[in-house]
Amino acid sequence: MSPGEDGLIGIPFPEHSNELLSHLNDQRRTGLLCDLTLTSRGARYPTHRSVMAAVSLYFRRLFGAEEGGGEGGGGFSVCQLDCVAPDALDALLEFAYTATLTIPSSGMRDVLRGAQLLGIQCVADACRDILGETGEAEGETAGEQRPPQTTSERTVEIANVVEKISRRKTDRKKVKKVGLPHNFSPLNPLPASPASHPSPASDSFRSLPPTQPPSPEPEELHPKLGQNGDPRAIREPGRGATLNGGLLHWAQERPLIAHQPPTQNDKLSEDDDMEGLGDDMMRSSSFPSSVADRGAATSVAGGGRKRKSQTPQQCPVCQKIIHGAGKLPRHMRTHTGEKPFQCSACGVRFTRNDKLKIHMRKHTGERPYTCSHCPARFLHSYDLKNHLSLHSGARPFECPLCHKAFAREDHLQRHRKGHSCLELRTRRPRRGPELGEDGGEKEGSPLSLQAHPSVFHPRSVLEGGGGSGSIGGPSLIFPGGIDRERSLALQALAQLAPQRLAGYPELFLRGLDMQGGRDSEREDPGGTRSPALQHDRWADDMEDEEVEEGE
DNA sequence: CTGGGGATGGGGCCC
DNA sequence: TGGGCCCCATCCCCA
Length: 551
What we know:
It is built from 23 helices and 13 strands. The chain is mostly helical. Residues 134-154, 169-244, 258-277, 283-313, 417-451, 513-551 are annotated as: Disordered. InterPro entries: BTB/POZ_dom (IPR000210), SKP1/BTB/POZ_sf (IPR011333), Znf_C2H2_sf (IPR036236), Znf_C2H2_type (IPR013087), ZnFinger_BTB_dom_contain (IPR050457).
């Protein structure tokens, strides 16, 4: 790190979003800091306005969050939602706080209706598709038309459905037209608050009209929560609470970015004026376009690097410059964890279609890459390439310290990282400029590595360009189902990071270098693919070692 | 620790 | 401009 640019380095904490949501959920369960209570037919659900406003257009409008008034709400303490079945409301709350929709199959329609009423578009879309599409949600029959499925099968199917949804943009507007009972509508900036439709007295809670000062009057709310005792007990109005059997457990991978189609063709956050349902998804989906613009503006961030004519785009999350038209959506899936391409045979999902196609070879038995020297066949071309080196006996990658040779570069890197060769080495090659000066063995001589450039590049800049490893492997960074919870943080990043770092392309690169993920967990991830750069790092490492030993 | 297979993400080329 | 396809670099996992 150069000490010169302090305070502008973006250090992502990928787990933060997970923990944040988890803690919010804990708070909800314990009633802590809950400033909003939802009621449905007697059941009460303590919750947080901010969370509800984040997932529900209805609440966003209700609290005036979209009007840019930072006051954060109209002061509602209780919101009566009798139009949403308790089970459905419970499921939707669970979704809001865990990004996982767990509902009985029989309750799908109720959840759909609730999602529509509350403007939780991604849930509504998913339910509609599961129920048989057509957007009318009247189709439990459609759902029954399907053959019986096991839970796993359904989960798989839901994943496909979500994929379809993610690609569907026009339906959103159609959904917006769905009529809503009880006056309130996500389309209506004036929601039917408990004060605006005649029911305030029906609850012991006091409901405040939207024109009231923003104070939620917690002194009234919290005692109620206290009366509730364990809010969770309230939240469980007859919910069958296992993930097995007939329950449908939808581990949504991309709750808020779910509607961001991989094609990134949308600018809905602008042209829709946030009027669409689930527009936080739209907002999130807006960043690629803005990034594209910014990417064009900062396409020279790579300095003198050779660039293809295609406009590079900058990832709003990791700031990485993505080259190639249409590659940014692909890259974004590494952040969202979205894996739209699913193997029909085994259900394994992939972020990319081409990877799925390769995967399918495992099922078809196709191994198109055949060794000409032996019967070995391979799925990947590079496997064959590696394999051929065995026949040739070539070991072009040699450790500069112990001179052990490897057939594969990554094995050499691994060898180097382990420092297993330190005891064996007899001399230390020096990096380029010093070669020969101290009579040391020329570093290039034992190596078949490409000659490194004569200029020793600052590491901070060089490694920045090789963030593939660091941003790679979202499944590693966010194993299991928790990756979905990132979306909240990703949205914030998408909106904040570009502005914060817009003028500092070098820091973009540095941010890449520092971002979480596998790289940060490693001593030296080999963030660059360039053998020359890699070699530079090695030389740098060796120099460091020399300094240490010399002292 | 090493060899090998497989997975993942980025870039190039092309349509 | 987006997406398909391919190749490459890198990483993970297992024997």
